[in-house]
Design brief:
179 residues, Rossmann fold, six-stranded parallel β-sheet, 8 helices, 16% strand
Length: 179
């Protein structure tokens, strides 16, 4: 069971996948849509905040509808459409890999009295890992469901999960077990 003072982070899920290895990442990301949606539904039902943190794609606007429009294409649609933020979700843009770097995330989490984070999204070995590291340094308890993050390489994703478990003391159980 998830503690009351928990927030769900959804990292970089609005993505055009129009880069080297983007098609591979999109394929791996498609497998995490259902687990992330399960977490979203659970968090909505139990009134846990849902916070999207996303690259800005040179728009520099924390407007998920504009970023969705810019990133939407045939490859991103099966991922972005079912996972797009709802109007009552929080949405922040980030300039670099960590969701904490150059954002209001830490302040928002303290304002919401959050002590535990469920971290999901892409890429597991980059933005998710960097965010988890920064969250750990800020003494948040971490849940990183192994079936709710994706990377270009399955080996890199596994390595990132291992690091988060062993170094950052994150719970990496699958979504069904965490819920």
């Amino acid at each position: 069971m998830i503690p009351n003072d928990t927030a769900l982070l959804v990292i970089d899920i609005l993505n055009p996948f129009d880069f080297t290895h983007g098609e591979t990442l999109a394929h791996h990301t498609a497998s995490i849509v259902k687990p992330i949606n399960s977490l979203r539904h659970y968090c909505n039902k139990h009134q846990h905040p849902i916070i999207y943190i996303n690259d800005h794609y040179e728009l520099w606007k924390a407007d998920y509808k504009e970023i969705y429009k810019k990133c939407h294409n045939e490859m991103s649609d099966p991922i972005m459409t079912p996972l797009q933020p709802m109007d009552d979700d929080f949405f922040l843009i980030k300039p670099k890999h960590s969701a904490f770097y150059g954002t209001a995330l830490n302040t928002l989490l303290h304002h919401l009295s959050v002590k535990n984070l469920i971290i999901t999204g892409i890429a597991g070995n980059i933005c998710v890992l960097f965010t988890a590291n920064d969250a750990y340094m800020r003494e948040f308890t971490l849940y990183v469901p192994g079936d709710a993050i994706a990377s270009v390489s399955k080996e890199d994703n596994h390595y990132a999960l291992t690091m988060m478990k062993n170094v950052l003391t994150a719970n990496i159980d699958p979504t069904g077990k965490i819920l």
